[in-house]
Structures are given as C-alpha cells and as structure tokens.
Amino acid sequence: xxxPGRSGMxxxxxVAAQVxxxxxxxxxxxxxxxxxxxxxxxxxxxxxxxxxxSRAVAVSFxxxxxxxxxxLSPDPTAELQPRAEEVRRSVPVDFVVVMNTxxxxxxxxxxxxxxxKFVGRIGPALRGEPVVEEITGTIGRLVQAVVPVRDPxxxxxxxxxxxxxxxxxxxxxxxQLPLLLGAAAAALALATAGTAVAGRRLLRQxxxxxxxxxxxxxxxxxxxxxxxxxxxxxxxxDGELLLANDEAQRLLGLxxxxxxxxxxxxxxxxxxxxxxxxxxxxxxxxxxxxxRLVVVNQRPTRxxxxxxxxxxxxxxxxxxxxxxxxxxAARERLDLLYAAGLGIGSSLDVRRTAEALAELVVPRFxxxxxxxxxxxxxxxDEPSARPDPGAALRRTAVVGVDEAxxxxxxxxxxxxxxxxxxxxxxxxxxxxxxxxxxxxxWEGQDREQWSQLLEHGVRSLIAVPVRAGGQVxxxxxxWRDRRTEPFDEEELAVAEELVTRAAVAIDNxxxxxxxxxxxxxxxxxxxxxxxxxxxxxxxxxxxxPAQAGVGGDWFDVLPLSGARVALVVGDVVGHGLHAAATMxxxxxxxxxxxxxxxxxEELLGLLDxxxxxxxxxxxxxxxxxxxxxxxxxxxxxxxxxxxxxxRAGHLPPAVVRPDGxxxxxxVPAGPPLGLGGLPYETAEVELEEGSRxxxxxxGLVEERDRDIDAGLELxxxxxxxxGESPEDTCRDVLEGVAPRPTDDIAVLVARTRVIGADRIAVxxxxxxxxxxxxxxxxxxxxxxxxxxxxxxxxxxLILSELVTNALRHGSGPVRVRVLRExxxxxxxxxxxxTAPRLRQATTFDEGGxxxxxxxxxxERWGTRWTPEGKVIWAAQPLP
Length: 879
Prior knowledge:
By secondary structure, this protein is of the alpha+beta class. It has 21 helices and 31 strands. This is SpoIIE family protein phosphatase.
C-alpha cells in the first residue's frame, strides 16, 4: 500500500513520470538523428575508401618489380594476367587492368576484354599524373584509378588501372547499416534505462508527492528542525545568518529576530563568530559559550554542489565533558596499572625495583615518590612479620619533578609515633592525608623538616605499607605539591594496587638477593683465596661473579714436582648453587689428579669420567640432561720453558710474546667434560721468558649482542695495548673487553720465568754400584757452592737411596738432577716402567727401608711419568 497522497510512477501528477516521458522522447530523437548521420557518413566513408583502395592497388602494382619488364616482353598478357588476377583476388577490388600507352588492355578479369580499348581517361596518366574517376565501364558503374608505369629512365611504358564497382561500395555500406542500427538500439536502451534510473531517484526524493503534499512535508520538516535538541546554523557566503533553529538560539543566546542578519552583529564571542564566518571544516571542536561547552561540527555547503556557505550543528557537552574527564582519569589510572605490571619487576635488584616504582608514578600520579625499606630487605634477609613502628628505614628510592626537601637517598629514617610512616607501620594499612597543612602529624616529628615541606608546597600525601606474604617490607610515600587537587579515595585505591604489585617484585628481588649472596659466598669459598708460592710464574687473576646468577667459572694455580706449575681454568654449564657446587667438586678433583703428576690429556680424561658419574648420580632415571663443563689444563716447566696444554671444549689460550705480539695458541679442541667418547689431545709450545699466558672463560668474550669472534678480536686488541705486568693485563683486559659483564668471568694471566743454569745440576750415572759414591761427593760439592752445607748429609742420603733403587730395579740410563728453587729438589730418572711403592718393612726384612727413609727425610716425594720412563723425586725445604 502507498502512503496517503503518494502517486505511482506512471501517474501524470508525478513529477518523476513527466520528467521520464520527456527524457525518453529526447533520447529517441537523438538516437534516430545519430543513426541517419552514421548511415550517410558510412556511405561517404565507403566511397572514399574505394577511391583510396583502387589508387593504392594501382600504384603498388605499377611499381612492383618486373611490371615494366613484362610490358616490354613479347607476350605481356602471359606474364601480367596471372599476377593481376592474384592481386585482384587477394585485395578487395573488382579489377586490375594493365594496358599499353595506347590504352589496349593486356589483362582483365574477363578474358574477352583483353586486347580491347580501355574505358576511361588515360591522358593525364600518360603525362605522369594518376587519375581517379567514377565512370560506367564494361562491368558497370565503378570507381577506378589509372597510374603510369615507368621504366628505369622515367619513361611511361604502360598504364595500370584498379577499380571497384559502385555496387560493391553500396554493399559495404549496406553491411554496416545493421551494425549501426543495432548500436542505435543499444544506445536507445541505455538512454532509456538511465532515464528510468534518474526518474526512480527523483521519485524516491519527492516520494511522488504533488505540490500540496510537498508543502505539508516542508511544514513538518520545519517543526522537526526547531524541536530537536541540537542546534542548526546555516550561514551564507556573505556572512549572513540564513537559518538558526530554536536550540541554536538557546545555546548561542541569540535574539528572536535573527532573520538575515550578519553573524558579526549577533553578539557572539569572537572565537565562535570567527569559526562560523570561516566556513572551514570543523569536527567536534569545543567552544565555550557563556557557562556552557558547545561542541561544533561545521561543513561547507559547496562540498555537495550546493550554494556557497556553511552549515554548523551545535551540541551542549557540558555534562558530557565532565563525564569524559572522569573517564579519562580512570583510563589513565588503568594505563598506570598496566605499565606497572610491565615495568616493575623486570629487575631482580631491590633498589632498581624500588626506583622503577618511583619513576613510574612521577609525574603521572604524584609529584614526588619515596620508597623506604628496612635494611634487612636490602640485604636479602627475612623482615619481621610485626616490625617495630620506630624501627629505622632506609630511603631506597626518591624521585620528584623538582628538588623537594625530602630525606635524601640512603638516609636512615627513624619515624616516631606520630609520623605517617609510623602510623602506617603500626596500623598495617594505607594512610591518606589530603591536606597536610591541616594535620598535626608533623608536630611529633622534625618540625624543621615538615615546615620546609609545607613551605615548598607539598600539600597532599598517601603512605602505603609494602606487604608481601604477611610481612611488611617498608613504606611507599606519594606526595603532591604542583597539582592543586589533593589525593582522594579513588587514588588511594590506585596507590594500594600499585604498591601491592611492587611489593611482589621487591620481595622476589629480596629472595634473589639472599640466594645470590649465598651462592656467591659458596662460590668464593670454593675458589682459591690466595695463590700458592712458586717461582715459575708471576700470576694475577680476576674473578667477577654474574649479576643475574652465580655461575660455575673457576681457576687454579697448582705447583707440581720439578718446579713446574699447572694452570687451570674451567666453566660449569648453568648458574646457581648447583653450578657452584659442581665447580667445587671439579676443582677438588683437579687438585687430586694433579698430585699424581698426570699428563694434561690423562687428567682431562679422568675429569670427563667424573662428570659423567655426577650426571648419573643426579639423574638416575637415565635422562639426557648433562651437567657439562669446559676446562683448560696447562703445565709450564721453567727449566725447559715448555708449556704442555690440553682443553675440553674450552676457548683457546692467548699468549703475549715479549715483543708484544699476541696470538691464540692452536690447542686441539676436545669435547666438553661429561660427553665422553673421544680422547683428548695435547699441544706443546715453547715460551720465551717474560711471555704472558692468558687463560679465560667465555663470559669475557661472549655476549648476547656480540659474536664470539668479535670478542676474541677485541681481546687481542686489548692484550696488544695492555700493561706488561699480569695485574695491569688483567685490569686492562676487563676494561677493554667486558666493561659491563653479564656473565661470570675468570681471567688468569701468568708471566713466565726461567730457572737459570746456576740453580740446576745434572749428572749421568753409570750402571755401576760404585757410581753412587761419586754422586754423593758431587752433591756435597754442589751444596757447598750454593751455601747449603747444612743439608749436604740429608741430600747425600736421599740421592744415595734413590740412585741405588734406580740401578737395582730400573733400566736404561740413569740421570740425576738437582734444582734449587723454593725447595731443594732431587730427581733420579731411568727408563723403567715400574714405580717404587712405600711399605712398612718388618723386623726381619733385609731391605725395603730406603724409600721409607727418603719419605722421612724429605718434605714431599713422588713419581712422575715421562715419555722416556719415570722420575722419582724428593723435595726438601730450604732454610
């Protein structure tokens, strides 16, 4: 059903129907005229095309190769007739005629016409001018062209004519006429459809209403315009107020007789008047009008093809503004809590966590923030569940927008019973002081301190206890001085939520501090507290524990027999107490194995088995987790200046030659300890006196954002410019390679020394028991030269027993070596593969007391194996 007063589209009363009929008639007339014009134009174009085509064919045939020669041949028809017919069939023309200069045809589509006179004008062509004409020929009315044929000298030797009949031209136009009529019909259909669409749109816009209905509709629109609760203002291009509904008059305070007055004469504020007169695009711009806030949206009317001017809508947003302000404040608080969840707790340092809280809230929530914690919390200890309200607090963090007279960082604060901190600790809940000037809390504390705060402008305070797991860790204070509004109950809830989240992070950092301290203490107790005394190397070291977790890096310096010294550096995979404990077990094992005078590769093999057993003990279910460790073991001999080393998955050592050259030694890389399966290999290098051997762990050269090769090159450069002493080398390497280490680091620098020939004596012993006496005499003379006459008897007795055992039980050549270092060392070597064993001789045994006697007279004794055999040695302390 149609609404009352609404007509159908075909109704004569409908404006849309009338417009539709007029448009259809106009379109039909235009299409018919266009079709007629197209037909005439098509015929003219076809005739022009026939003239151009006939002339082009004649010219092309006349200039074709061989045409003039054929004309001069004895039988031109035989040569030219097939070519002319081929051209006629391939090109849409009706004939191609070749003739002599007298007009006698040599070719023609009809054979009976050959040899007869050509019909048409040939005079101009004989003079060299082509001719195009319409005539009636032997095949009917036609359009033909006549062109001359020239020989190479330019003489006209014949003529060529090509043409198409008028009937063919007409057929071409007739073939185009259906296409033209079809196009005209399609154009008519499209035009009719477009007119119908335009008519329907006009019908929708007018709703098929007549003048009376349109008048009533505009009356309704006017009533609605003045009853809506949104102001509408229309301004003309000349600044004249064209329309202002009732709501606009109310919001802008306009008089009733505003009709066609200029905007500048309405008494509006300059800001509002300028906006309405500018005509620019405005979207939700807020303008104050009296005691209201009005939201203005304005658009130029010319943007939609209308007249110049602008239309503006006005909306009262005073209450909405207040609501949006509260919503914005709530959003900011949510953002603050979200940022707290992300930013607080990213560090496991108590102080840094407290600073993160203070930095987060200033100036977004407060103008100043302070965090006061108990000393036990900073040290990682357990705080008291019910702390003394008067117990001292430590100012751990303080952040502000300016320099306020608050207690400085690290100050000890001992609040009394009336201070906010004491009240918070005593009550165990947050405290809100919206106006500090009106509270007597400051009277019981330092009057000068609180007076300075009030004079500075601090006017509002929130104090919140830091609670974690039922324990109070401290107090957080939020202060305001620049903001005029004091803290309220909603902000108190936000402050409590912030401190609650921070308390968890602070307690986690406290626990980490405690565990880290325990691990560091354990690790330092497992590392050497002092280096042993020895003369082979001048040694310096540095050990830096990891900041985020104690690792398993370790080092050692172990004196060996024969004045040799072993250097050890290792790294246990992982961090924490487990890694530190594993490191201690490995260090103890290295001490034990080194006392056996094992070769470096043998010692690493035993360590590998030990780590594998540790894995089995700690993972009895047969899992695939491996404790894992790396180790580098090097033995330096100050007599031969040779250094033998082997490594298990560790980085290669560096050596700084006396001339300053730095190189990384090529030591075969074995698998890390605990993996097993492959034997370890050794490398031997000769070191000049004064060379610096540098052993280190991967924490020195490897970082997350730096490739290990870049770290090694940086180490090489630092060693090249480092000081010559081991202490200077350690300091310069750490400053140049790892100024801010993230992993634990162990660095061991040893500068080589050499035992001079004046402190060494070597004698070859003949395999004759009587040679023992000569050795004793030589030893006595040597000790006299060294000023050790008091030890001559003991030394002669030791050498006598050791040489006698070598001659009796050993094989091969026997050699004696005496060294004077920190100890007096006597060594007897032979090629035998059996080692003496100390045992307790019975009363009736005739032998077996010599080695017991050596053990009693010397401080230490032992056996070490060499590629040539064995060495039995005994060391005596020097006076």
